[in-house]
Amino acid sequence: MGKRDPRVDAYIRNAPEFAKPILEHLRAVVHEACPDVVEGTKWSVPHFDYHGILCGMAAFKHHCTFGFWKSGLVLGDEAKPQDSGAGQFGRLQSVSDLPSKKVLTGYIRKAMKLNEDGTRVEKPKKPPKPEVTVPSYVKTALGKNTKAKAAFEAFSPSHRREYVEWITEAKTDATRDRRLAQAIEWIAEGKSRNWKYER
To answer: Per-10-residue mean pLDDT for the chain, 199 residues long?
Structure first.
């Protein structure tokens, strides 16, 4: 048996007037299509769980959004291109902006089946960032301090990148020189650029 969440009631009650019928319609269709759905909130907006996150909805000042957690598998090429703040069905300003109840029910049941089967969506892996180019003035400063040079070379690529970016993003030569001196001191002690925040 499904479960309604009073936080979703409150969310709909506090939504802009135009949004209330959209959110109520979406909620009703989800519950009808998936009687065992469990409501909740994630990221402060309503979502629906059925063997994992199924779908979610949100209201903004001038539009609503609705989307499936596994949208690529549920909608395929039928999803509208997303822009800022728009879900897989675009910016919803009325119930008529949604697919028919029959079509929406089909999508929900497809999403349910994916969750029942334990289908996972693999996130595309980001290509690794290229190794950072160390400016000659940084190399020269490191060369003058063998301890710092050895520690810098032993750092992971991301730690080396953090130092180089911090130094090279300085707006003035004076700031750059100050950062470089500080970096050499910290590197010689084996500290990463953000050592103060590490536990």
So the answer is: 89 96 96 95 93 94 92 72 61 93 95 92 79 92 94 92 94 95 94 80
**End-to-end CA separation in angstroms for the chain:** 45
Burial, 166: exposed, middle or buried (Cβ in 10 Å; 0-12, 13-18, 19+)? Answer: middle
Structural contact between residues 68 and 54, judged by C-beta atoms closer than 8 angstroms: yes
Starting at the edge strand found earlier in the chain, the sheet holding 64-68 runs 38-42, 45-49, 53-59, 64-68
Residue with tokens 């996972």: 120
Question: Domains of the chain by range and CATH?
Answer: 6-116 (3.90.1150), 136-197 (no CATH)
Whether the model pTM is above 0.85: no
E strand spans, 43-180: 45-49, 53-59, 64-68
